[in-house]
């Protein structure tokens, strides 16, 4: 089925480790986004991408790295995980002519 | 910059009660406005939208009217059901189309509906 898929669904990692969260969409949407969801903060934009090889920072980019070599994939890497990065991460995509965003089911990341 | 303010939660209602969730915004230009819903363990889903002043978005019995004079986009439903229990987010976009621009979200509010 067409859609947007995030993996893994759950992840526990140790402080200082590198971890990559995957996001894959099958629509060839031009725009993709990474948000984190934390109690009391709602959703905050980490990074977004307007097309392959074009990325830009959002509201809370520190400690994260993204890449987009192919339109359908937009991985998010935590280079050296910290406890403050414990959160639920959502990937989303959109395209001109559609209404708003389509979200993935999220990745719950715990840094211990 | 742009911002969205939602009323504090959580909200607990009995089934068939009337629902209002307040949302106000600050933006330059003429944003599009959205309500998203997040059911437990799932991602966000678009509930309804409005792209210009006085537009009314509606879906699944929910309604919201884009009020430019009060910079508001309050969500209402006449008779809530247990299945409406979820987290609701108000959001706005930078540009009028809303389709390919960044969304700014409110903090969300949890709605619980008792049988």
Record the SSE blueprint.
The complex is a heterodimer of chains A (112) and B (115).
Chain A (H helix, E strand, L loop, with lengths): L3 E4 L2 E4 L5 E7 L5 E8 L3 E10 L2 E4 L6 E3 L9 E3 L8 E8 L7 E2 L3 E5 L1
Parallel strand pairs in A: 2-11
Antiparallel strand pairs in A: 1-3, 3-8, 4-5, 4-9, 5-6, 7-8, 9-10, 9-11
Chain B lengths: L2 E4 L4 E4 L4 E3 L1 E4 L6 E6 L5 E7 L5 E4 L2 E4 L9 E3 L8 E8 L9 E3 L3 E6 L1
Parallel strand pairs in B: 2-12
Antiparallel strand pairs in B: 1-4, 3-9, 5-6, 5-10, 7-8, 8-9, 10-11, 10-12
Fill in the keyword field for this structure.
heterodimer, A: 112 residues, mainly beta, 7-stranded mixed sheet, 4-stranded antiparallel sheet, 52% strand, globular, B: 115 residues, 12 strands, 0% helix, 49% strand
Task: Kindly summarize this structure in a few lines.
By secondary structure, chain A is mainly beta. Chain A has strands spanning 4-7, 10-13, 19-25, 31-38, 42-51, 54-57, 64-66, 76-78, 87-94, 102-103, 107-111.
Give a written overview of the molecule.
The complex is a heterodimer of chains A (112) and B (115). Chain A is mostly beta strands and 112 residues long. Chain A is built from no helices and eleven strands. In chain A, strands 2, 4, 5, 6, 9, 10 and 11 form a seven-stranded mixed sheet that branches. A four-stranded antiparallel sheet of chain A has the order 1-3-8-7, with no helix packed on it. Chain A starts with a strand and ends with a strand. By secondary structure, chain B is mostly beta strands. In chain B, 0% of the residues lie in helices and 49% in strands. In chain B, the strands form three sheets. In chain B, strands 2, 5, 6, 10, 11 and 12 form a six-stranded mixed sheet that branches. Chain B has a four-stranded antiparallel sheet with strand order 3-9-8-7, with no helix packed on it. A two-stranded antiparallel ribbon of chain B has the order 1-4. The interface between A and B is medium-sized, with 27 and 22 residues.
């Amino acid at each position: 089925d067409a859609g947007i898929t995030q993996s893994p669904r759950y992840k526990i990692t140790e402080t200082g480790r590198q971890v990559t969260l995957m996001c894959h969409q099958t629509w060839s949407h031009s725009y993709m986004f990474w948000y984190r969801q934390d109690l009391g903060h709602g959703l905050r934009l980490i990074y977004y991408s307007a097309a392959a090889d074009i990325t830009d920072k959002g509201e809370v980019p520190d400690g994260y790295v993204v890449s987009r070599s192919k339109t359908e994939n937009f991985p998010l890497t935590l280079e050296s995980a910290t406890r403050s990065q414990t959160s639920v991460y959502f990937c989303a995509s959109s395209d001109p002519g559609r209404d708003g965003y389509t979200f993935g089911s999220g990745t719950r990341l715990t840094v211990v | 910059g742009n911002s969205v303010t939602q009323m504090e939660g959580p909200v607990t209602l009995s089934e068939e009660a009337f629902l209002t969730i307040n949302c106000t915004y600050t933006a330059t230009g003429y944003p599009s406005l959205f309500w998203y819903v997040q059911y437990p363990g799932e991602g966000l889903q678009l509930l309804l939208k409005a792209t210009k002043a006085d537009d009314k978005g509606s879906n699944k019995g929910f309604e919201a009217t884009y009020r430019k004079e009060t910079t508001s986009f309050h969500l209402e439903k006449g008779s809530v059901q247990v299945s409406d229990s979820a987290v609701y987010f108000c959001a706005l976009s930078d540009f009028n189309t809303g389709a390919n621009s960044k969304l700014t979200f409110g903090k969300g509010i949890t709605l619980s509906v008792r049988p």
